[in-house]
Protein backbone atom coordinates (compact mmCIF):
# COMPACT_ATOMS: atom_id res chain seq x y z
CA UNK A 1 0.00 0.00 0.00
CA UNK A 2 0.99 3.63 -0.40
CA UNK A 3 0.45 6.52 1.98
CA UNK A 4 1.19 10.24 1.83
CA UNK A 5 3.06 11.20 4.96
CA UNK A 6 3.58 14.65 6.49
CA UNK A 7 7.26 14.13 7.23
CA UNK A 8 7.62 17.39 9.23
CA UNK A 9 5.77 20.70 9.55
CA UNK A 10 6.27 22.91 6.50
CA UNK A 11 5.39 23.69 2.90
CA UNK A 12 3.93 21.22 0.43
CA UNK A 13 7.33 19.58 -0.17
CA UNK A 14 7.11 17.88 3.26
CA UNK A 15 4.43 15.57 1.82
CA UNK A 16 6.10 12.32 0.74
CA UNK A 17 4.78 9.02 -0.53
CA UNK A 18 5.79 5.98 1.50
CA UNK A 19 5.18 2.28 0.86
CA UNK A 20 4.10 -0.14 3.58
CA UNK A 21 2.72 -3.66 3.93
CA UNK A 22 -1.03 -3.85 3.35
CA UNK A 23 -2.98 -3.40 6.59
CA UNK A 24 -5.24 -6.19 7.89
CA UNK A 25 -8.66 -5.40 9.33
CA UNK A 26 -9.02 -6.02 13.08
CA UNK A 27 -12.25 -7.31 14.59
CA UNK A 28 -15.12 -5.02 13.61
CA UNK A 29 -13.13 -3.37 10.81
CA UNK A 30 -13.10 -3.49 7.04
CA UNK A 31 -10.22 -2.97 4.63
CA UNK A 32 -11.05 -0.45 1.89
CA UNK A 33 -9.34 -0.39 -1.47
CA UNK A 34 -9.37 3.40 -1.77
CA UNK A 35 -10.42 5.11 -5.01
CA UNK A 36 -10.78 8.73 -3.89
CA UNK A 37 -9.75 10.83 -0.88
CA UNK A 38 -11.33 14.10 0.23
CA UNK A 39 -8.84 16.90 0.95
CA UNK A 40 -9.80 19.19 3.82
CA UNK A 41 -8.53 22.55 4.99
CA UNK A 42 -7.65 20.83 8.28
CA UNK A 43 -5.07 18.71 6.38
CA UNK A 44 -3.30 21.92 5.36
CA UNK A 45 -3.39 23.25 8.91
CA UNK A 46 -1.97 19.89 10.10
CA UNK A 47 0.87 20.09 7.56
CA UNK A 48 1.74 23.55 8.84
CA UNK A 49 1.60 22.52 12.49
CA UNK A 50 -1.47 24.66 13.10
CA UNK A 51 -3.94 21.87 13.89
CA UNK A 52 -3.63 20.66 17.48
CA UNK A 53 -5.89 17.62 16.86
CA UNK A 54 -3.54 16.09 14.29
CA UNK A 55 -0.90 13.52 15.24
CA UNK A 56 2.69 14.77 15.40
CA UNK A 57 4.78 14.22 12.23
CA UNK A 58 5.70 11.94 10.71
CA UNK A 59 1.99 11.25 10.33
CA UNK A 60 -0.68 10.47 7.76
CA UNK A 61 -3.75 12.72 7.81
CA UNK A 62 -7.05 12.41 5.95
CA UNK A 63 -10.58 12.26 7.26
CA UNK A 64 -12.52 10.65 4.42
CA UNK A 65 -12.27 8.18 1.56
CA UNK A 66 -14.39 6.25 -0.89
CA UNK A 67 -13.62 2.88 -2.42
CA UNK A 68 -14.44 -0.80 -2.47
CA UNK A 69 -14.37 -3.10 0.56
CA UNK A 70 -11.63 -5.66 0.00
CA UNK A 71 -11.74 -7.64 3.27
CA UNK A 72 -13.79 -7.89 6.44
CA UNK A 73 -12.43 -8.43 9.96
CA UNK A 74 -13.79 -10.81 12.55
CA UNK A 75 -17.42 -10.17 13.42
CA UNK A 76 -18.17 -8.29 10.19
CA UNK A 77 -20.70 -9.81 7.78
CA UNK A 78 -18.48 -11.18 4.93
CA UNK A 79 -21.05 -10.28 2.24
CA UNK A 80 -19.99 -6.64 2.72
CA UNK A 81 -16.86 -7.41 0.68
CA UNK A 82 -17.13 -5.88 -2.79
CA UNK A 83 -19.48 -3.08 -1.70
CA UNK A 84 -18.76 0.51 -2.85
CA UNK A 85 -18.57 2.72 0.21
CA UNK A 86 -17.67 6.11 1.57
CA UNK A 87 -16.02 6.23 4.96
CA UNK A 88 -14.86 8.50 7.75
CA UNK A 89 -11.26 7.93 8.69
CA UNK A 90 -9.84 9.69 11.70
CA UNK A 91 -6.45 10.30 10.03
CA UNK A 92 -4.72 7.78 7.73
CA UNK A 93 -7.11 8.73 4.93
CA UNK A 94 -4.24 9.73 2.60
CA UNK A 95 -3.71 6.01 1.80
CA UNK A 96 -4.61 3.77 -1.11
CA UNK A 97 -5.67 1.08 1.38
CA UNK A 98 -7.12 1.79 4.80
CA UNK A 99 -8.83 -0.10 7.63
CA UNK A 100 -11.78 1.49 9.44
CA UNK A 101 -14.54 0.38 11.77
CA UNK A 102 -17.52 -0.89 9.79
CA UNK A 103 -19.58 1.64 11.79
CA UNK A 104 -17.84 4.47 9.91
CA UNK A 105 -18.66 3.02 6.50
CA UNK A 106 -21.75 3.86 4.41
CA UNK A 107 -22.95 2.45 1.08
CA UNK A 108 -22.58 4.90 -1.82
CA UNK A 109 -25.90 5.88 -3.44
CA UNK A 110 -26.14 4.75 -7.07
CA UNK A 111 -26.18 8.35 -8.32
CA UNK A 112 -22.65 9.08 -7.05
CA UNK A 113 -19.23 8.30 -8.48
CA UNK A 114 -16.29 7.68 -6.12
CA UNK A 115 -15.00 11.26 -6.42
CA UNK A 116 -18.26 12.89 -5.38
CA UNK A 117 -18.79 10.24 -2.69
CA UNK A 118 -15.44 11.21 -1.12
CA UNK A 119 -16.63 14.84 -1.11
CA UNK A 120 -19.55 14.07 1.19
CA UNK A 121 -18.55 12.98 4.71
CA UNK A 122 -16.72 15.92 6.30
CA UNK A 123 -18.35 18.75 4.37
CA UNK A 124 -21.95 17.61 4.67
CA UNK A 125 -21.79 16.24 8.23
CA UNK A 126 -20.19 19.49 9.44
CA UNK A 127 -22.76 21.58 7.58
CA UNK A 128 -25.61 19.40 8.84
CA UNK A 129 -24.46 19.75 12.46
CA UNK A 130 -24.07 23.52 12.02
CA UNK A 131 -27.27 24.24 10.15
CA UNK A 132 -29.79 21.63 11.28
CA UNK A 133 -28.64 20.26 14.62
CA UNK A 134 -27.11 23.18 16.50
CA UNK A 135 -28.12 26.12 14.30
CA UNK A 136 -31.77 25.03 14.16
CA UNK A 137 -32.35 26.88 10.88
CA UNK A 138 -36.00 27.05 9.83
CA UNK A 139 -37.99 27.88 6.73
CA UNK A 140 -38.26 31.64 6.34
CA UNK A 141 -35.15 32.39 8.41
CA UNK A 142 -31.91 33.77 7.00
CA UNK A 143 -28.36 32.46 7.16
CA UNK A 144 -24.94 33.95 6.47
CA UNK A 145 -22.53 31.28 5.21
CA UNK A 146 -18.89 32.39 5.38
CA UNK A 147 -16.57 30.75 2.81
CA UNK A 148 -19.68 29.91 0.81
CA UNK A 149 -17.52 28.70 -2.09
CA UNK A 150 -15.60 26.17 0.03
CA UNK A 151 -16.53 22.54 0.60
CA UNK A 152 -18.46 23.13 3.83
CA UNK A 153 -19.89 26.34 2.37
CA UNK A 154 -21.49 24.64 -0.65
CA UNK A 155 -22.84 21.87 1.59
CA UNK A 156 -24.33 24.48 3.94
CA UNK A 157 -25.91 26.19 0.93
CA UNK A 158 -27.56 22.94 -0.23
CA UNK A 159 -28.99 22.28 3.23
CA UNK A 160 -30.15 25.87 3.83
CA UNK A 161 -31.90 25.99 0.44
CA UNK A 162 -33.58 22.67 1.18
CA UNK A 163 -34.89 24.10 4.45
CA UNK A 164 -36.29 27.16 2.65
CA UNK A 165 -34.03 29.80 4.22
CA UNK A 166 -32.78 33.03 2.63
CA UNK A 167 -29.06 32.65 1.97
CA UNK A 168 -26.23 35.18 2.24
CA UNK A 169 -22.69 34.02 1.53
CA UNK A 170 -19.19 35.49 1.62
CA UNK A 171 -16.54 34.45 -0.88
CA UNK A 172 -13.95 35.83 -3.29
CA UNK A 173 -15.71 37.75 -6.07
CA UNK A 174 -14.62 35.29 -8.78
CA UNK A 175 -16.82 32.61 -7.20
CA UNK A 176 -20.02 34.68 -7.15
CA UNK A 177 -21.46 33.70 -10.53
CA UNK A 178 -21.04 29.99 -9.70
CA UNK A 179 -22.64 30.52 -6.29
CA UNK A 180 -25.59 32.37 -7.80
CA UNK A 181 -26.11 29.54 -10.29
CA UNK A 182 -26.08 27.10 -7.34
CA UNK A 183 -28.88 29.16 -5.76
CA UNK A 184 -27.17 31.54 -3.31
CA UNK A 185 -29.47 34.55 -2.92
CA UNK A 186 -26.91 37.19 -1.86
CA UNK A 187 -23.16 36.76 -2.52
CA UNK A 188 -20.88 39.18 -0.63
CA UNK A 189 -17.30 39.96 -1.69
CA UNK A 190 -15.86 39.91 1.83
CA UNK A 191 -12.30 40.48 0.64
CA UNK A 192 -13.12 43.91 -0.76
CA UNK A 193 -16.20 44.92 1.24
CA UNK A 194 -17.11 45.06 4.91
CA UNK A 195 -19.42 42.02 5.12
CA UNK A 196 -21.15 43.35 8.26
CA UNK A 197 -22.12 46.58 6.52
CA UNK A 198 -23.32 44.55 3.50
CA UNK A 199 -25.47 42.25 5.65
CA UNK A 200 -27.02 45.16 7.51
CA UNK A 201 -27.78 46.95 4.24
CA UNK A 202 -29.27 43.83 2.64
CA UNK A 203 -31.44 43.03 5.69
CA UNK A 204 -32.63 46.60 6.34
CA UNK A 205 -30.53 46.77 9.48
CA UNK A 206 -31.97 43.61 11.04
CA UNK A 207 -29.23 41.00 10.59
CA UNK A 208 -29.69 37.26 10.12
CA UNK A 209 -30.84 34.38 12.32
CA UNK A 210 -27.79 32.18 11.77
CA UNK A 211 -24.12 32.79 10.89
CA UNK A 212 -21.65 29.95 10.37
CA UNK A 213 -18.06 31.14 10.64
CA UNK A 214 -14.86 29.15 9.96
CA UNK A 215 -12.65 32.24 9.65
CA UNK A 216 -12.15 32.84 13.37
CA UNK A 217 -10.33 35.58 15.28
CA UNK A 218 -11.87 39.01 14.97
CA UNK A 219 -14.24 37.76 12.26
CA UNK A 220 -16.28 36.06 15.01
CA UNK A 221 -16.88 39.48 16.64
CA UNK A 222 -18.29 40.87 13.42
CA UNK A 223 -20.35 37.75 12.75
CA UNK A 224 -21.95 38.08 16.18
CA UNK A 225 -22.91 41.66 15.31
CA UNK A 226 -24.58 40.40 12.12
CA UNK A 227 -27.14 38.43 14.20
CA UNK A 228 -30.63 39.72 14.76
CA UNK A 229 -32.51 38.88 18.00
CA UNK A 230 -32.84 35.08 18.38
CA UNK A 231 -29.72 34.77 16.23
CA UNK A 232 -27.16 31.96 16.55
CA UNK A 233 -23.44 32.06 15.72
CA UNK A 234 -21.80 28.73 14.88
CA UNK A 235 -17.98 28.83 15.08
CA UNK A 236 -16.12 25.97 13.46
CA UNK A 237 -12.70 26.97 12.17
CA UNK A 238 -9.79 29.39 12.22
CA UNK A 239 -8.81 29.76 8.55
CA UNK A 240 -7.39 33.18 9.38
CA UNK A 241 -4.49 31.53 11.22
CA UNK A 242 -2.87 30.57 7.90
CA UNK A 243 -2.65 34.15 6.68
CA UNK A 244 0.18 35.27 8.93
CA UNK A 245 3.82 34.46 8.28
CA UNK A 246 4.60 34.51 12.02
CA UNK A 247 5.85 31.42 13.86
CA UNK A 248 3.29 28.85 15.01
CA UNK A 249 3.08 29.94 18.64
CA UNK A 250 2.82 33.61 17.72
CA UNK A 251 0.08 32.78 15.23
CA UNK A 252 -1.96 31.08 17.98
CA UNK A 253 -1.26 33.92 20.43
CA UNK A 254 -2.46 36.47 17.88
CA UNK A 255 -5.58 34.41 17.24
CA UNK A 256 -6.43 34.24 20.94
CA UNK A 257 -6.03 37.98 21.46
CA UNK A 258 -8.44 38.61 18.57
CA UNK A 259 -11.13 36.21 19.83
CA UNK A 260 -14.35 37.46 21.38
CA UNK A 261 -15.28 36.55 24.98
CA UNK A 262 -19.00 36.06 25.50
CA UNK A 263 -20.70 37.21 28.66
CA UNK A 264 -23.83 35.26 29.75
CA UNK A 265 -25.66 38.45 30.72
CA UNK A 266 -24.74 40.02 27.39
CA UNK A 267 -26.09 36.96 25.55
CA UNK A 268 -29.31 37.07 27.59
CA UNK A 269 -29.92 40.72 26.94
CA UNK A 270 -29.12 40.41 23.24
CA UNK A 271 -31.24 37.26 22.79
CA UNK A 272 -28.37 35.65 20.91
CA UNK A 273 -26.51 32.37 21.26
CA UNK A 274 -23.10 31.09 20.24
CA UNK A 275 -21.95 27.51 19.71
CA UNK A 276 -19.00 25.55 18.43
CA UNK A 277 -18.67 22.56 16.14
CA UNK A 278 -15.72 20.18 15.75
CA UNK A 279 -16.69 17.09 13.79
CA UNK A 280 -13.37 15.49 14.69
CA UNK A 281 -14.51 15.41 18.31
CA UNK A 282 -17.76 13.63 17.44
CA UNK A 283 -15.92 10.35 16.95
CA UNK A 284 -17.66 8.71 19.92
CA UNK A 285 -21.14 9.80 18.81
CA UNK A 286 -21.47 7.25 16.05
CA UNK A 287 -25.26 6.93 16.38
CA UNK A 288 -25.73 10.63 15.77
CA UNK A 289 -23.27 10.63 12.88
CA UNK A 290 -25.03 7.62 11.31
CA UNK A 291 -28.42 9.33 11.62
CA UNK A 292 -27.17 12.56 10.03
CA UNK A 293 -25.40 10.63 7.29
CA UNK A 294 -28.62 8.79 6.49
CA UNK A 295 -30.43 12.14 6.06
CA UNK A 296 -27.61 13.36 3.80
CA UNK A 297 -27.59 10.21 1.67
CA UNK A 298 -31.38 10.46 1.38
CA UNK A 299 -30.74 14.00 0.18
CA UNK A 300 -28.50 12.63 -2.57
CA UNK A 301 -31.35 10.36 -3.72
CA UNK A 302 -33.80 13.26 -3.53
CA UNK A 303 -31.46 15.61 -5.39
CA UNK A 304 -30.91 18.39 -2.85
CA UNK A 305 -27.48 17.16 -1.74
CA UNK A 306 -25.20 18.03 -4.67
CA UNK A 307 -21.53 17.38 -3.80
CA UNK A 308 -19.40 19.47 -6.14
CA UNK A 309 -15.86 18.36 -7.00
CA UNK A 310 -13.91 21.30 -8.39
CA UNK A 311 -10.80 19.28 -9.35
CA UNK A 312 -9.22 15.92 -8.81
CA UNK A 313 -5.46 15.47 -8.38
CA UNK A 314 -3.55 12.20 -8.75
CA UNK A 315 -2.51 10.62 -5.44
CA UNK A 316 1.14 11.61 -5.90
CA UNK A 317 0.16 15.29 -6.34
CA UNK A 318 -1.21 15.94 -2.84
CA UNK A 319 1.15 18.92 -2.55
CA UNK A 320 -0.34 20.50 -5.68
CA UNK A 321 -3.82 19.88 -4.25
CA UNK A 322 -2.89 21.67 -1.02
CA UNK A 323 -1.33 24.58 -2.92
CA UNK A 324 -4.48 24.94 -5.05
CA UNK A 325 -6.65 25.29 -1.94
CA UNK A 326 -4.20 27.62 -0.20
CA UNK A 327 -4.27 29.86 -3.26
CA UNK A 328 -8.09 30.00 -2.77
CA UNK A 329 -8.65 28.60 -6.27
CA UNK A 330 -11.12 25.88 -5.28
CA UNK A 331 -14.88 26.08 -5.51
CA UNK A 332 -16.15 23.15 -3.49
CA UNK A 333 -14.18 19.99 -3.03
CA UNK A 334 -10.68 18.91 -4.00
CA UNK A 335 -10.21 15.15 -4.23
CA UNK A 336 -7.15 12.90 -4.63
CA UNK A 337 -7.62 9.86 -6.87
CA UNK A 338 -5.49 6.77 -6.29
CA UNK A 339 -5.81 5.21 -9.75
CA UNK A 340 -6.70 1.88 -8.12
N1 LIG B 1 -14.95 22.22 12.90
C1 LIG B 1 -15.15 21.31 11.99
O1 LIG B 1 -15.65 20.23 12.28
C2 LIG B 1 -14.76 21.61 10.57
C3 LIG B 1 -15.03 20.70 9.55
C4 LIG B 1 -14.69 21.03 8.23
C5 LIG B 1 -14.07 22.26 7.98
N2 LIG B 1 -13.80 23.09 9.01
C6 LIG B 1 -13.15 24.40 8.75
O2 LIG B 1 -13.93 25.11 7.83
C7 LIG B 1 -13.10 25.92 7.01
C8 LIG B 1 -13.41 25.61 5.56
O3 LIG B 1 -13.09 24.25 5.31
P1 LIG B 1 -13.34 23.64 3.89
O4 LIG B 1 -12.76 22.26 3.89
O5 LIG B 1 -14.74 23.87 3.48
O6 LIG B 1 -12.42 24.60 3.06
P2 LIG B 1 -12.11 24.63 1.56
O7 LIG B 1 -13.14 23.97 0.74
O8 LIG B 1 -10.71 24.17 1.44
O9 LIG B 1 -12.22 26.17 1.26
C9 LIG B 1 -11.14 26.98 1.25
C10 LIG B 1 -11.71 28.35 0.99
O10 LIG B 1 -11.69 29.08 2.20
C11 LIG B 1 -11.55 30.44 1.91
N3 LIG B 1 -10.55 31.02 2.81
C12 LIG B 1 -10.81 31.82 3.85
N4 LIG B 1 -9.70 32.14 4.47
C13 LIG B 1 -8.69 31.55 3.83
C14 LIG B 1 -7.30 31.52 4.01
N5 LIG B 1 -6.71 32.18 5.02
N6 LIG B 1 -6.53 30.80 3.16
C15 LIG B 1 -7.10 30.11 2.16
N7 LIG B 1 -8.45 30.09 1.96
C16 LIG B 1 -9.22 30.80 2.78
C17 LIG B 1 -11.19 30.54 0.44
O11 LIG B 1 -12.36 30.96 -0.22
P3 LIG B 1 -12.53 32.49 -0.74
O12 LIG B 1 -11.70 32.57 -1.99
O13 LIG B 1 -13.97 32.61 -1.02
O14 LIG B 1 -12.02 33.36 0.36
C18 LIG B 1 -10.83 29.12 0.05
O15 LIG B 1 -11.14 28.83 -1.30
C19 LIG B 1 -11.67 25.64 7.47
O16 LIG B 1 -11.31 26.59 8.43
C20 LIG B 1 -11.79 24.28 8.12
O17 LIG B 1 -10.77 24.04 9.06
C21 LIG B 1 -14.13 22.79 10.28
In words, what does this structure look like?
Strands 3, 4, 5, 6, 7, 14 and 15 form a 7-stranded mixed beta sheet that branches. The chain is globular, with a radius of gyration of 20 Å. The protein has 340 residues and is of the alpha/beta class. The site of NADP nicotinamide-adenine-dinucleotide phosphate has 30 residues, from α1, α3, α4 and α11. NADP nicotinamide-adenine-dinucleotide phosphate binds next to α1, α3, α4 and α11.
Name its key features:
26% strand; 15 strands; binds NADP nicotinamide-adenine-dinucleotide phosphate; seven-stranded mixed sheet; 31% helix; 11 helices; 340 residues
Estimate percent helicity. 25-40%
Number of helices, where a helix is a run of at least 4 consecutive DSSP H or I residues: 11
Strand content range: 25-35%
Radius of gyration: 20 Å
The low-confidence runs, each spanning 5 or more residues with pLDDT under 50, are none
Sketch the major β-sheet.
Answer: 7 strands, mixed
Hetero groups bound? NADP nicotinamide-adenine-dinucleotide phosphate
N-to-C span = 11 Å
Describe the global form.
Answer: globular
What's the pLDDT, averaged over the residues?
Answer: 96
The helix-and-strand class reads alpha/beta
Number of strands: 15
| Order of SSEs | EEEHEEEEHHEHEHEHEHEHHEHEHE
Amino acid sequence: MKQISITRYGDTDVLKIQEKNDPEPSAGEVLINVKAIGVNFADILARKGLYPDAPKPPCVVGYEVSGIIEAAGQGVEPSIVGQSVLALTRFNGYSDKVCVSEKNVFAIPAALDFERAAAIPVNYLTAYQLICVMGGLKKGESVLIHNAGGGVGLAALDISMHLGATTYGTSSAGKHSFLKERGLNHPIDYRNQDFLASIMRLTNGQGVELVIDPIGGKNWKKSYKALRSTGRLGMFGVSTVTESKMGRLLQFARLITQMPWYNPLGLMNANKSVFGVNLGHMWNERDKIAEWMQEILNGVEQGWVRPHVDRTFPFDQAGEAHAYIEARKNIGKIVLVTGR
